[in-house]
Amino acid sequence: HFSLYYLAVPSLGLAFIAASAAALSRRSGWGGLALCSVFLAFHFYLAVPFNRATTVWHFERGLRIRSLVEGLERAHELHPGHVIALAGIDSELFWAGYFDRPYSLYGLAETCLVPGSDRSIDAHPELGDIAPYLCSPSVLADTARQGRLAVYAYEGPYLRNITRQYVRQNAPRWNSAWPDFIDVGLPSYARYLGPGWYDIQGTFRWMGPRAELTLAAPPAPGAHLSIGGYCPAEHLAVPIQLTVSAGGLVLGRRAVTRDNTSFSFDFPLPPALAGKPSMKVDFAVDRTVTPPNDGRALGLVFGKIVLHAPPSNVQAPAAGH
Fold it and tell me: Which among 58, 104, 144, 239 is placed 20 to 30 Å from 137, CA to CA?
């Protein structure tokens, strides 16, 4: 966590020197005391307005985050079991609070930002990726058809329900979409999972020896696939080798060891997959573990799988190629 405000730490030394000078000025007569008073007055003249402005900024930003989280809590009470999609989240609100998923404190796992929200959020790769926070259009389509979708717009200190308006405007373009992001631990993505997955446990799923799912294919060459997961250290006395394939093509192999029990792997996607409507992604492990009193052959725990589109200046392949 790199923050510029750490550069203010050396100013503590200057404060100690100034405080010592102020204490010594009492022994220097009226002249020294007057000089010290002028210096301190000049310091407070500069520091107080700046400190007040900074405090007000943090306070007002905190109020925005608080209103968002409390609004989500209320939306969850009104729509239990629904996917809550948010519109109107700007860059400051996202990075200052939403990025850290404070809504999870209220049991809100199925909360996401409406597609296209990333256009109003500044990218900060050094902090994290925005893509896993975005709703998949295909998931919105499914949950809307099931009556499990609630869309809210953040408007100042309030959340406004815009579900009916949003669905009416966007439903036609949802129907043929495949997701470019899957969280295997959320029920809304279950229909995109193939054989090989066990039931959800909390916010994740175990895979067996093999498992598969279906994602949108990359629109153009240059895309890559990110996967995240976990394996308990007690299962890793011997490393587990994970093989990932997409569209029948092996993307690569990675080892999960006690040094990376929480793993995140990235795989470039072959150009041959570009331009297709979807692709099947396969996961295979070279061994499984069957815990006592469980009976399941467990491979790895998975969470999020994300297709990262290529840069916008890369052209999609022409039809027929």
Answer: 104
State the Cα–Cα distance between residues 284 and 276, nearest whole angstrom.
23
User: For residue 318, is pLDDT > 70?
Assistant: no
**Are 221 and 273 a contacting pair, CB within 8 Å?**
no
Per-residue pLDDT tens for 148-207? 899 999 997 889 999 998 888 876 666 556 888 898 988 888 889 999 999 998 878 999
Angle (CA) 220-221-222 rounded to 5° is 115
The pLDDT tens digits of the residues spanning 202-213 come to 878 999 999 999
- Residue 90, class by beta-carbon neighbours within 10 Å (0-12 exposed, 13-18 middle, 19+ buried)? middle
Residue with tokens 């093999």: 210
Distances (CA, A) of 75 to 117, 216, 292: 19, 30, 41
Q: Report the C-alpha gap between 204 and 227 in whole angstroms.
A: 13
Q: Pull the structure tokens for residue 163.
A: 């579900």
Dihedral class, residue 107 (left if φ above 0, else alpha if ψ from -120 to 50, else beta): left
Nearest to 266 by CA among 230, 305, 231: 305
Q: Are 134 and 112 in contact (CB under 8 A)?
A: yes
**Would you call 176 helix, strand, or coil by DSSP?**
coil
The position carrying tokens 């499990």 is 148
Q: How far from 253 is each of 74, 158, 236, CA to CA, in Å?
A: 44, 47, 17
* β-pair partners for 154: 159
Looking at this protein, which amino acid is placed at residue 304?
Answer: K
Instruction: Give the pLDDT band (50/70/90) at residue 130.
Output: confident
3-class DSSP state of 223: coil
CA distance 143 to 137: 10
Contacts of 218 (CB under 8 A, 6+ apart): 269, 273, 274, 307, 309, 310
Q: Which of 311, 289, 252 lies closest to 123 in space, CA to CA? A: 311
